[in-house]
Amino acid sequence: MALITKIREKSGIAAAAIAISLVLFLIGSDIFQGKSSLFGSSSQEVGQIAGQSIMVQDFQKKVEEATANYTAQTGKGPSEQEATMIRDQVWNQYVLDIAYKKEFDALGIQVSEEELIDMVQGNNIHPSVRQQFTNPQTGQFDKTFVVQFLKNLKTMPAQQQQAWANFEKSLAQDRVRSKYENLMRLTNYVTQSEAKKEYQTQNAKYNARFVFVPFFSLPDTAIKVEESQLQAYLEKHKGQYKGVNSRSIQYVTFPVIPNKQDTADFYSQIKKLAKDLAVAPNDSAFAMLNSDVRTPYLLPYSEIPQDVKAQLNTFQVGGIYGPFKNGLTYSIYKYGGVKKDSLFTVRASHILIAPANKSDSAKAQAKTRAEGILAQIKGGASFETLAQMNGMDGTAQNGGDLGYFKNNGSMAKGFEKAIFGFAGSGLMPGVVETEFGFHIVKITDPKSNTAYKLAAINKSIAPSQATMDRVYTQADAFATANGSLSAFEVALKKDKSLIMMRADRLTENASAINNLANAREIVRWAFDDNTAVGDGSKKVFEQDNQYIIAYVTGKTDKDQVKVEDFRTELTAAVRNEIKGEKISQKLSGIKGSLEQIAQKYGAGALIENVSDITLSTGMLNTAGPDLVALGRISGLKDGKRSPVFVGDNGVFIVEKTGGIPAADLADYSTYKNQLQMMGVQRTSFYINEAIKDAAKIVDKRYKFY
User: b/e string for 283-301 if b means 16 or more Cβ within 10 A?
Assistant: First the structure.
């Protein structure tokens, strides 16, 4: 299961891609509802994989099937983010069917009929089958459900039979991929020499003193960088500057804000709803029907908003309270009293001290350490501070806070029993032992099984249609009058109330622009073949109660890398090269001790010492983790001085003052295993990248979605 999970994580093919759905409904998509951006395109090709064209009609059909599959499983249609995920799954399935299959076929890897039967109803059930055929009463996988389903399969509608065939195909593909990756992992081999080198990298220690003149000691303004130098550097280092398809834009927004009349109308609406809620025969149903954001009628104390909690003890049964404001949402409540729940809720913090291993001595050490921390807290030390310093799980950074949880088995059994057996709040007197280690626990909100009956109407204040129309007219007039980037720049100078925003190097599949979360329409416009640098959108884009007009300010092409694409990075690199030459020339002409050299060089030269540094963790004070300098230090003999050399961050003269070499070991298997494990962990990623690169994948989905 862990291997399958890793494959999916690395390849981006989500587990949902092989989840079963026995009912498929074809759904419409606005891509086939006459959008001119699609049907006006010169090509219906959504991409190429290994030379094979993927047509948008075929791709969209699979997207619709996957969307219906998702809807059948979840009972709701996908959000925009989920729809993007579904399209990614479909695309990755194409990559698997075309690019990966060539590799599988070349090696003769396949899944036999007997193996598939074993995965579905035999002794080695696939996890996806287990997930789908779970007995709702026991929560466990029940093979009889599978057998019964297969017996009835031929009597089911054709769509359900096809769904099952697709599911079995995905199981087989998953197993073939697993076999392939396991085979590739077996090719990962670490030599004795590599293991020894890794051991020395981690354990050999060096001492040194050096003159260091950082690049930043020379002001950038003193270095003139020519265009020809930038071009020459780019040509020499092409491998470091990979081209991408990107667009840079500027845009201006026209926010739609409720005016005074909108606000007055909203308050009138809230008052009327409050009166109606007071007399509603079914207050919870009335609240649900009239809320923009629905909340449960029965709420545990932990889920009640903080400002409502502050007044909760003043509430009377049948009373109307509020409005309570949260951003642009206002809430009114009708209080119906309390009800006892079958489950308790508590809030707690903990500090986990885990043993180094499962031995009795390691457990004893962990317990002693936990009891020592508990004693410090009892003596007045801060629980939160000690949690941050000592906690050994993800809660440490939050002071050990676990938030609210119920006694429903969500926590470790021993932990849950101890906490819900504790009365009141505060520090628990002893440590709690679980399979994870030893816990110091503080109850921050005592257990309670009281649920509050709160019929809540939540309404968000919004601009009226008249207000939206008025602002749209303003935005549309601006777009019409300023159809180009040059006109936009003139308008910005004239109207100081306009606020220009920018977004650089947007990629073709970007869905967000700064704080604009769902900006695909703007990105698609920027990447349209008919949109050139300097063009304005002319069209007004609408998003989140604001109207947007955008302008393309720049573009890059992955197949035509230019200096302009990396001007900032190239300028910094060339400038440092020039600085390195200037500093080196000056240092090379100075003789004497390191102190004398630094003194004669003047401002900017530093004398620094380092002790017990290693190649794997070496930090050279001001110079930081300078790999060039670390390599030079390791290669020097004790007492020897290096010539002047340029490092990553400045110019050095180094003297090696000693160190402790890594003694030879009889067995380097620990380090061999480390490297072997690292290679295994990277296998899935490297396989995926290599296959995609060999398939010369061209992804044009951004033109359609």
Answer: bbebbbebbeeebebebbb
